[in-house]
Design brief:
This protein is α/β, with parallel strands linked by helices. 36% of the residues lie in helices and 21% in strands. It is globular.
Protein backbone atom coordinates (compact mmCIF):
# COMPACT_ATOMS: atom_id res chain seq x y z
CA UNK A 1 0.00 0.00 0.00
CA UNK A 2 1.26 3.46 -0.91
CA UNK A 3 2.30 5.73 1.95
CA UNK A 4 0.07 8.71 2.69
CA UNK A 5 1.59 12.10 1.94
CA UNK A 6 1.02 15.09 4.20
CA UNK A 7 1.27 18.44 2.43
CA UNK A 8 1.75 21.41 4.71
CA UNK A 9 0.63 24.58 2.91
CA UNK A 10 2.27 27.73 4.32
CA UNK A 11 0.63 31.06 3.47
CA UNK A 12 2.36 34.38 2.99
CA UNK A 13 2.75 37.49 5.13
CA UNK A 14 -0.51 39.01 6.35
CA UNK A 15 -2.48 36.09 4.90
CA UNK A 16 -4.08 33.00 6.43
CA UNK A 17 -5.23 29.45 5.83
CA UNK A 18 -8.14 31.12 4.00
CA UNK A 19 -5.83 32.28 1.21
CA UNK A 20 -6.91 31.72 -2.37
CA UNK A 21 -4.15 29.17 -3.09
CA UNK A 22 -4.91 27.20 0.09
CA UNK A 23 -8.58 26.98 -0.89
CA UNK A 24 -7.74 26.00 -4.48
CA UNK A 25 -5.41 23.25 -3.27
CA UNK A 26 -7.97 22.00 -0.75
CA UNK A 27 -10.70 21.84 -3.42
CA UNK A 28 -8.35 20.05 -5.83
CA UNK A 29 -7.48 17.39 -3.26
CA UNK A 30 -11.08 16.63 -2.17
CA UNK A 31 -11.51 12.86 -2.21
CA UNK A 32 -7.77 12.23 -2.54
CA UNK A 33 -7.17 9.45 -0.03
CA UNK A 34 -3.37 9.39 -0.23
CA UNK A 35 -2.86 13.09 0.45
CA UNK A 36 -3.60 14.88 3.72
CA UNK A 37 -3.50 18.68 3.43
CA UNK A 38 -2.75 20.82 6.47
CA UNK A 39 -3.04 24.61 6.15
CA UNK A 40 -2.26 26.20 9.51
CA UNK A 41 -2.98 29.83 10.34
CA UNK A 42 0.61 30.82 10.96
CA UNK A 43 1.67 32.97 13.88
CA UNK A 44 2.72 36.49 12.86
CA UNK A 45 6.06 36.06 14.67
CA UNK A 46 8.50 34.13 12.41
CA UNK A 47 10.00 32.37 15.43
CA UNK A 48 6.58 31.23 16.67
CA UNK A 49 5.49 30.25 13.14
CA UNK A 50 8.54 27.98 12.72
CA UNK A 51 7.87 26.41 16.11
CA UNK A 52 4.21 25.90 15.16
CA UNK A 53 5.16 24.14 11.89
CA UNK A 54 7.82 22.02 13.60
CA UNK A 55 5.16 20.67 15.98
CA UNK A 56 3.16 19.48 12.96
CA UNK A 57 6.28 17.80 11.53
CA UNK A 58 7.17 16.07 14.81
CA UNK A 59 3.61 14.84 15.41
CA UNK A 60 3.26 13.42 11.90
CA UNK A 61 3.88 9.80 10.99
CA UNK A 62 3.36 10.50 7.28
CA UNK A 63 5.83 11.59 4.62
CA UNK A 64 5.77 15.40 4.55
CA UNK A 65 6.19 17.95 1.77
CA UNK A 66 5.72 21.71 1.89
CA UNK A 67 4.06 24.18 -0.40
CA UNK A 68 4.87 27.74 0.60
CA UNK A 69 3.85 31.02 -0.96
CA UNK A 70 5.83 34.25 -0.50
CA UNK A 71 6.89 34.36 3.18
CA UNK A 72 5.51 30.83 3.54
CA UNK A 73 8.04 29.93 0.85
CA UNK A 74 10.87 31.13 3.06
CA UNK A 75 9.54 28.99 5.92
CA UNK A 76 9.09 25.98 3.61
CA UNK A 77 12.64 26.32 2.28
CA UNK A 78 14.12 26.65 5.77
CA UNK A 79 12.24 23.67 7.22
CA UNK A 80 12.64 21.42 4.17
CA UNK A 81 16.39 22.03 4.35
CA UNK A 82 16.48 21.40 8.10
CA UNK A 83 14.46 18.16 8.00
CA UNK A 84 15.54 16.86 4.55
CA UNK A 85 12.03 17.19 3.08
CA UNK A 86 10.74 18.41 -0.27
CA UNK A 87 9.37 21.90 -0.76
CA UNK A 88 7.51 23.65 -3.55
CA UNK A 89 7.71 27.42 -3.27
CA UNK A 90 5.61 29.98 -5.12
CA UNK A 91 7.18 33.41 -5.65
CA UNK A 92 9.03 32.83 -2.36
CA UNK A 93 10.93 35.21 -0.13
CA UNK A 94 14.63 34.26 -0.26
CA UNK A 95 17.65 35.41 1.74
CA UNK A 96 18.41 38.36 -0.58
CA UNK A 97 14.88 39.74 -0.22
CA UNK A 98 14.95 39.94 3.58
CA UNK A 99 17.08 43.09 3.90
CA UNK A 100 14.41 44.97 1.89
CA UNK A 101 11.68 43.80 4.25
CA UNK A 102 12.67 46.01 7.17
CA UNK A 103 9.80 48.34 6.27
CA UNK A 104 7.41 45.58 7.41
CA UNK A 105 8.19 46.57 11.00
CA UNK A 106 5.04 48.23 12.31
CA UNK A 107 1.27 47.74 12.46
CA UNK A 108 -0.57 45.41 10.10
CA UNK A 109 -4.07 44.06 9.55
CA UNK A 110 -4.58 40.47 8.36
CA UNK A 111 -6.19 40.33 4.90
CA UNK A 112 -8.69 37.65 5.91
CA UNK A 113 -9.39 37.93 9.63
CA UNK A 114 -9.00 41.69 9.99
CA UNK A 115 -6.87 41.03 13.08
CA UNK A 116 -4.48 43.90 13.85
CA UNK A 117 -0.99 43.07 15.07
CA UNK A 118 2.56 44.38 15.35
CA UNK A 119 5.47 43.04 13.32
CA UNK A 120 8.37 44.03 15.59
CA UNK A 121 12.07 44.63 15.03
CA UNK A 122 12.69 41.35 16.89
CA UNK A 123 10.40 39.61 14.37
CA UNK A 124 12.42 41.15 11.53
CA UNK A 125 15.70 39.97 13.11
CA UNK A 126 14.24 36.48 13.57
CA UNK A 127 13.23 36.52 9.91
CA UNK A 128 16.84 37.21 8.91
CA UNK A 129 17.94 34.00 10.70
CA UNK A 130 15.71 31.95 8.38
CA UNK A 131 17.45 33.10 5.20
CA UNK A 132 19.78 30.23 4.38
CA UNK A 133 22.97 31.12 2.53
CA UNK A 134 22.78 27.94 0.49
CA UNK A 135 20.68 24.80 0.37
CA UNK A 136 22.05 21.45 1.60
CA UNK A 137 20.06 19.51 -1.01
CA UNK A 138 19.01 21.89 -3.80
CA UNK A 139 17.04 19.19 -5.63
CA UNK A 140 14.66 18.91 -2.66
CA UNK A 141 13.28 22.27 -3.80
CA UNK A 142 11.00 23.16 -6.70
CA UNK A 143 10.43 26.89 -7.16
CA UNK A 144 7.66 28.48 -9.23
CA UNK A 145 8.47 32.03 -10.30
CA UNK A 146 6.47 34.65 -12.17
CA UNK A 147 8.83 37.18 -13.75
CA UNK A 148 6.34 40.04 -13.34
CA UNK A 149 6.07 39.53 -9.57
CA UNK A 150 5.37 43.06 -8.37
CA UNK A 151 6.40 42.35 -4.75
CA UNK A 152 9.65 40.37 -4.92
CA UNK A 153 12.56 40.60 -7.37
CA UNK A 154 12.33 37.41 -9.46
CA UNK A 155 16.04 37.67 -10.36
CA UNK A 156 17.02 37.19 -6.70
CA UNK A 157 14.66 34.23 -6.43
CA UNK A 158 15.99 32.62 -9.61
CA UNK A 159 19.62 33.09 -8.51
CA UNK A 160 18.91 31.58 -5.10
CA UNK A 161 17.28 28.45 -6.54
CA UNK A 162 19.70 28.16 -9.49
CA UNK A 163 20.70 24.59 -8.49
CA UNK A 164 17.11 23.54 -7.76
CA UNK A 165 14.16 22.72 -9.97
CA UNK A 166 12.69 25.99 -11.24
CA UNK A 167 9.71 26.89 -13.40
CA UNK A 168 10.15 30.53 -14.36
CA UNK A 169 7.48 32.12 -16.54
CA UNK A 170 7.07 35.54 -18.13
CA UNK A 171 4.21 37.72 -16.95
CA UNK A 172 2.00 36.85 -14.02
CA UNK A 173 2.04 38.49 -10.62
CA UNK A 174 2.90 37.81 -6.99
CA UNK A 175 -0.46 36.09 -6.43
CA UNK A 176 0.44 33.43 -9.02
CA UNK A 177 -3.05 33.42 -10.51
CA UNK A 178 -2.66 30.22 -12.54
CA UNK A 179 -1.71 28.13 -9.50
CA UNK A 180 -4.55 25.66 -10.19
CA UNK A 181 -2.96 24.61 -13.50
CA UNK A 182 0.35 23.86 -11.76
CA UNK A 183 -1.05 21.46 -9.12
CA UNK A 184 -0.54 18.27 -11.21
CA UNK A 185 3.09 19.27 -11.84
CA UNK A 186 3.57 20.00 -8.11
CA UNK A 187 2.12 16.61 -7.14
CA UNK A 188 4.30 14.82 -9.71
CA UNK A 189 7.36 16.45 -8.13
CA UNK A 190 6.28 15.44 -4.62
CA UNK A 191 5.86 11.79 -5.56
Amino acid sequence: MEEQLKIIYLHGFNSSAESKKAKILDAYLVGEKLINLVSPNLETSPKKAISQIEKIIIQSSNRICFIGSSLGGLYATFLADKYDLKSVTINPVVKNHISGMKDLVGSHKNFHSGEEYQFTMKDYLDLQKLGLKELKKPLNHFCLIKMSDEVLDHNKTFAYFSKSYVLSEKGGNHSYDDFFQKIPLILDYMY
